[in-house]
Design goal:
- The complex is a heterodimer.
- Chain A is α/β, with parallel strands linked by helices.
- Chain A is 22% helix and 31% strand.
- Chain A contains 6 helices and 11 strands.
- The longest helix of chain A has 14 residues.
- Chain B has 1 helix and 8 strands, in the order βαβββββββ.
- By secondary structure, chain B is mainly beta.
- Chain B is globular.
- Classes of the chains: A alpha/beta, B mainly beta.
- At the A-B interface, strand 6, helix 6 and strand 11 of A face strand 1 and helix 1 of B.
- The structure holds flavin-adenine dinucleotide and zinc ion (ZN).
């Protein structure tokens, strides 16, 4: 029944939180145990459904952070101030809790090791989550093509996966929008078109480009990237909305 | 760059992947849809999605016309997709 294994799971499934790791002052990574998880592709997400005692439900999408092929189901959630689902998952959820998930979802905002081209990743805030799945997948496969990350984040405390990003060395550039770490020359501020040009693979190398983050950030980056000559057909974007963590 | 002071409210078709899979029985974010109004052809993931109303609305990212909208209650789904001329769904081998 090889075919059955590839059928998408459309039903809500119970998932048990098996581990909660603090990722930053406002974000946590949650490991989920989902019976019969079929595996996922880097860039995919799951819908998470919470049900209150009175039957009220809330559904939100969360990207998978773990590498494709790792067998792990991990999401990283950053709190949206006042947010219904994110504050519960980050501040209250503990190992042993149950949630419902639907997924893995997404067949377009995905990167597979079979793609031989160089890859440029552009993240705004928590938009780094699916891109980290791509970096982890790329790293564990020892993929020969370059994969670079440009990561815009409000301040050093909000950086997700700080150790792993540091280990990427010059394959990653972190730019701060509100507070820069002490001793950096760049004043905090939005990423400029000149900075995008300086810190990303040139359009002439024809990279696949993945952009993810708050909607305003994504729209701005799409304009900059096409302005730098990237083929719009090679750019894939995922918008988290304006109330996701910037 | 987006207009200063204008907060874009939309998500994109990726955010609707789960709800779309419920309608179509498979993930269609990679399916190519053609807009009735302007003829633009794009992946369903590239549509602009509005999910904060009572249902979901997907608009063409080129001309902003409504491609699809639907609302689901416990027993009934109402779906309108006259703005979508065609959709090409390729199932993985
Ligand atoms: C494809 C996708 C992947 C995401 N991945 C991550 C991630 O990895 N980590 C992370 O921290 N955040 C992620 N987000 C954002 C996340 O889904 C929530 O929007 C965020 O956590 C705020 O939810 P809340 O309930 O705390 O806030 P609320 O204030 O209660 O809601 C915030 C916003 O979510 C919108 N919303 C409501 N229902 C839905 C729905 N069904 N689908 C989409 N949006 C809805 C509302 O319109 C509101 O503007 C992702 C968003 C998308 C679209
Ligand atoms: Zn159109």
């Amino acid at each position: 029944m090889a075919r059955a294994a590839t059928l998408p799971r459309l039903t809500w499934q119970s998932a048990t939180l098996t581990q909660v790791r603090r990722e930053s002052s406002t974000a946590s990574t949650l490991r989920l145990d989902v019976a019969g998880w079929p595996g996922h592709r880097a860039g995919q997400h799951v819908d998470v459904r919470l049900t209150a005692a009175d039957g009220y439900t809330a559904v939100r999408p969360y990207s998978l952070a773990s590498a494709a092929g790792s067998g792990l189901v991990e999401i990283t959630v950053a709190t949206t101030p006042g947010g219904e689902v994110s504050t519960y998952l980050v501040n209250d959820a503990v190992a042993g809790n149950h949630v419902e998930v639907r997924g893995p979802l997404g067949s377009w905002f995905v990167w597979d090791v079979s793609d031989p081209d160089p890859v440029q990743l552009v993240a705004g805030g928590s938009g780094v989550v699916p891109l980290m799945s791509m970096l982890r997948t790329h790293g564990s496969a020892g993929h020969p093509a370059p994969m670079r990350l440009l990561y815009s984040v409000s301040d050093p405390e909000q950086v997700l996966y700080a150790d792993e990003v540091e280990q990427l060395a010059h394959a990653a550039t972190v730019l701060h929008t509100r507070h820069s770490p002490p001793g950096t020359a760049r004043p905090p501020g939005r990423v400029t078109p000149a900075e995008v040009e300086e810190h990303t693979l040139p359009a002439t190398s024809r990279p696949s480009v993945f952009v993810c983050g708050p909607t305003g950030f994504v729209e701005a980056m799409l304009t900059v990237l096409t302005g730098l000559g990237h083929d719009p057909e090679r750019i894939r974007a995922e918008r988290y909305g304006e109330r996701s963590s910037p | 760059m987006s207009e200063p002071g204008v907060v874009p409210r939309h998500l994109d078709g990726n955010a609707a992947a789960g709800a779309l899979a419920e309608l179509f029985g498979t993930d269609i974010t990679g399916a190519m849809g053609t807009c009735t109004a302007c003829g633009n052809r794009a992946a369903m993931a590239e549509t602009h999605a509005y999910v904060d109303g009572p249902g979901v609305v997907l608009r063409c990212h080129a001309c902003d016309s409504v491609l699809m909208r639907w609302a689901t209650s416990r027993r009934t789904t109402w779906l309108e997709m006259s703005g979508l001329r065609s959709i090409e769904i390729t199932v993985a081998p």
